[in-house]
Amino acid sequence: MTRELHLSVALGSAGPRSAAHWTGLVQLAELGALDFVTLDDSLDPADGEGRLDAVAVLAHAAARTSRIGLIPTVTTTHTEPFHTSSALATLDFVSEGRAGWLVDVSTTEEAARAVGRRDPAPDAELWAEAADAAEVAARLWDSWEDDAEIRDAATGRFIDRDKLHYADFDGPHFSVRGPSIVPRPPQGRPPVAVALDAQGRDARWELASQYAEIVLLAADSAATAREARTELLSRAGRDDLRVLISVGVTETRDALPELLADWHADAGTDGFHLVTTSPTEELPAVIHDVVPALRARGLFRATHTGHTLRDHLGLARPDSRYAVRTEAAL
Amino acid sequence: MSASTPAGRKQVHLAAHFPGVNSTTVWRDPGSRSQIDFSSFQHLARTAERGRFDFFFLAEGLRLRERKGRIHDLDVVGRPESLTVLNALAAVTEHLGLAATVNATFNEPYELARRFASLDHLSGGRAAWNIVTSSDAFTGENFRRGGYLDRADRYTRAAEFVEVARALWDSWPSGGTPLTVRHSGPQFDITARATLPHSPQVHPVLIQAGDSDEGREFAARTADIVFTRHGTLEAGRAFHADVKGRLARYGRTPDQLKILPAATVVLGDSEAEAQERAAHIRRQQVSPQTAVATLENVWGRDLTGYDPDGPLPDVEPVPDGELAQGWAHMADRFGIAARWRALAEEKHLSIRELAIELTARQSFIGTPGSVAAAMDEHVQTDAADGFILVPHLTPGGLDEFVDRVVPLLQERGVLRTEYEGRTLRDHLGLGRPAPRPEEAV
């Protein structure tokens, strides 16, 4: 039986072109019924025309789209986990359940000096801190139970405060008390994504196996991809993990549908993350040529069947870790 | 400006404040909708744009308020992160300015300057920043550095923060190359290249709300807008004269700083009906539980055993009883308690009646005609340059104002009928700042 694949596209990072430019690209991706777009970001100095804040660009695009998933990169090294969690929860609200988070770290001397709060640190330490940031975000997103808002006029209470919880995270780099200032987001927790290299087994893998629901995997052959995917799933010990192979569009454009179909069959992958270097030129080809070819093979959906990013990826909406199960008492 | 505008009449600048998490926001009313869904923000923003307002304003929360060691549950709780909401609103509005309150204590200039520049680019020049600072350790528990800032250093940090942010905004001329900003001061030590060239406004509009002498001086030197609580004619004129009088020493002219008091409006078909509605709203704002809580904040002790419809507590306040965290600091509780007792005795008020009495009277109560006339008078007599309207209902709280008062202000020739400029600076009549890119600051 044919397994449908998941398809996403990397738009690079956002030079300060008009808002309409970025919205147009996201709308085009939505037209192709892709699962999601990613938008890179960092606090490094920008080359060329500059780089807009990725959460900002996708929040803007959210108001002009209705189905496509929106996954910005947000780095954890120089940012406040509390703000990051609030911004991503808010992106989930303004998009009505389409936000994700591509976690990254900031390794450069330039970014460290620009923020001026700490020196650069080794990769392993930065990724361990990123995992702590992912833990804090997950706790804060869970810190309001889904039914915490009660608006009970009789007792004058807006919320049931027994359904709000402190995150109480205490780690080597930060501590966060909570609860979140933002109520629980539509998806419960926006899915966390991590980019991994199939070859390396670095500190990113730890974060991925514990927190990621989407892995964007760079692999040089179907065999390495298959091996990496098997290992990831076994490390994670759960099946709510979608492994998408990163494929450059530029070098493979004409052969792309064929290539994706073969990899999909051979690597046992869940789908692909198509990396564009010039989205303005490459995205139309993906949507108008590659997507129809995959549909013709029965490998890709004709339209979005769900509304949220979790719906597209077949990921269940998680319960809050703090919710007390009382059904047993009924 | 249209040809029918009477010469020399000051224009009224209006802004819409999204209802916040104080008891003044009524959630029990059947018309009250979500405080968090995007549709609510979109409704109020589009209403403000329909009314040709200058901007839309969001407050900020960084820690849920607590009383008696537990999360305060009587008022609206929970709100989104401001800048993310405003970037989305930029896509569904065309002219409206978009103002976010963001704390300078729990952010760093490089990152925040970039986030505001992004909003200014994406909105085509409509960004504004209401700068606040806080020094409380309670809020600090959610952040890396904790409550590190001394109360006395709040304006030092704010001033240095703005200086660094402006240097970053200046540092990359459109079509040019970014210069390196070097800054070394008590609060920040950075070497940075901006990630964005000049945004349409170059500097987002800066709003300041502090009322102390230091706050007023900071505003006179740095801000484009002062958000004040001095809403009456007399207090407004005194404040206006004081703050505008400080501008000259910084080489600024009175029209370069707009003074906008917070204002609430209640309308009726007659004066009597408006007064009745105003009283009804104040009663909605003070539930029996809220009335007791209001007294507890001053008494510093648990008063839940007292009947809200009965007399004031017969016990004295506890000197250091801090029951509440996340509210404004309260000095002199004994004095306040004594004054409240005297007021309650004089007017024979119960706990709840007293709390209602203490709740600020709405700024403008009357028919659309009398409200338009009163607002115009405030502006023409220099008690204000306009108003930040704070509705009591989410999200429809300004519908009636825009439908009924805005046309009358337009007839008076003191409110635009169409936007004439593109940017928030245009709406406010503020010039574009002259960027001063330089290698070091």
Automatic annotation (TrEMBL), chain A:
The residues the record assigns to binding FMN are: D41, T73
Q: Which UniProt keywords apply?
A: Flavoprotein, FMN, Monooxygenase, Oxidoreductase
Q: Which domain of life is it from?
A: Bacteria
Q: Does the keyword Oxidoreductase apply?
A: yes
Residues forming the Luciferase-like domain are 17-260
Q: Which GO terms describe its molecular function?
A: monooxygenase activity; oxidoreductase activity, acting on paired donors, with incorporation or reduction of molecular oxygen
What family does this chain come from, according to its entry?
Belongs to the NtaA/SnaA/DszA monooxygenase family.
Question: What is the designated name of this protein?
Answer: LLM class flavin-dependent oxidoreductase
Source taxonomy: Bacteria, Bacillati, Actinomycetota, Actinomycetes, Kitasatosporales
